[in-house]
Amino acid sequence: MRFTSLVVELIRARPRLVVWIVVLAQAAIWLLVPLILYGSPPGDLATVLAFGREYQVGTDMGPPLSFWLADIAFRAVGDHMFGVYLLAQVCAVATFIVFYHLARAIVGGPQAVLAVLLSMTVVVFSSPSVEFGPLILARPLWALLLLHSWQLIGQNRRSAWFAWSIDCGLLLLTTPAAIGMILLVAGFALATARGRRTLMSVDPLYALLVIVVLALPYLIWLIRADVLALPPLPAIAGLGARATRWGVVLGGLIVAMAAVVLLAILNSGWFARGPEDAPIIYRPPVGPLAQQFVYFFAFAPAIIGSFVAGLFNFDRVFGGAGVVLLMSGLAVVVATGDLVHLRRQRLLRTVWALAVAGPGLAAIAAALFLPWTSTTEAPTSLPAVAMGRFFDDSYERRTNQRLRAVAGDPQLASIIALDGRRPHLLLDASPQRTPWLSIAKFNQTGGVVVWRAQDTAGTPPPEIAQRFPGIVPEVPRAFDRLVNGRLPVLRIGWAIVRPKG
């Protein structure tokens, strides 16, 4: 008698339930880890909130939608990072639920579960899950764009045009890579006969009108700011270095697929006694157009995104790894065939769980054990709440006014700007990035200038002393991290710029 595990039976009978369970479990991990272990926001999240607080139509960090949503989520829970972390996980859950619906339309519900499980190992491993920003918000919007594109091209559902246009408009308000994403969809439609028939109607014109209306404010800002230009192309002598950079970025994407490759090898029939011993996940046949759709959007975004990153010397793949690798799991499932044998189920479950939980375990180890083994400071170890309260209270006691702005070291200043009264952030080294506040206006309205103290006197760095002449440094303030370990106590030098008049 053949034994079939409960997990396999659930995949066959209740595929949607399985997807919700694994997606919510993964989201719970990445919601609890930062709430428990992070003293300050990871990555550029503090800067994202500082920019979102100003509600600018556009900045040098990109379109405004993710910054606005981050500030709304932050304020909605009483100026606490819980709202932003929760928003990031809502985006993660929405991404995989939409991706499941797309996969189900192509390979059926049971194999769509396998596609989601495989893509989770890639997306979670290859890109951050808590640093809400354009890269995080673009994931569910890209999944929605692919779903509605397949409904238009593969299922001939004209009613999807309006939703498709909304997806495009929101993407344009989210990431600079949106134009490339939309062009990829348009290119696939033009390259296929059914896609060209879909475009031969008046519906695309109405969709284009909706997209223009949604993106018009940001487009006007781009024109006024005179930033509608590509980064400078490399010189001929530098093409070799850029090609190497392309290879490095593309290699990083291949490494991110390591868990999928390992799962495929472990599930192969090379060492199995016979296929009849393994349970089978069946699907209806996948047509040629569906195969072309899956393979195109599994490979083209990764290849083109890594090429653009190499050409313009970006530090990561253009569009984000979570976007360009989203379809990888579905591509593996489509390539496997109509019958997927699940061999060595216990080993497969263990490897998958380690691949999904691995980044979370690494974050825990970095927060608790890295300070004892290294002198490298974890960016999330800074005590954001204590820092914000101290400088806000100190400024108010000295001037009898609330703290209006903070400048100096960008990392420290952006963290202090998260204080409950939300002072403005001034990036004094590059004031054009913060057009809502200039150095002259900062000196007029007053604020706090902060830096990392290198001595007990709190002498400001020469560049800060040059930009703020006449500041009188206060006694440096020492703060304890969550785990100091071998690191010295965090000492912050600071000075008050008193408001004029």
Automatic annotation (TrEMBL):
Check the record and name the InterPro entries matching this protein: LipidA_mod_glycosyltrf_83, RgtA/B/C-like
Q: Which residues form the Glycosyltransferase RgtA/B/C/D-like domain?
A: 63-221
**Where, by residue number, does the polypeptide cross the bilayer?**
17-38, 82-102, 114-142, 162-193, 205-223, 243-272, 293-312, 318-340, 352-372
A Pfam family annotated for this chain is PMT_2
Superkingdom assignment: Bacteria
Topological type in the membrane: Multi-pass membrane protein
Where in or outside the cell?
Cell membrane
Tell me which UniProt keywords the record has, alphabetically. Cell membrane, Glycosyltransferase, Membrane, Transferase, Transmembrane, Transmembrane helix
Q: What is this protein called?
A: Glycosyltransferase family 39 protein
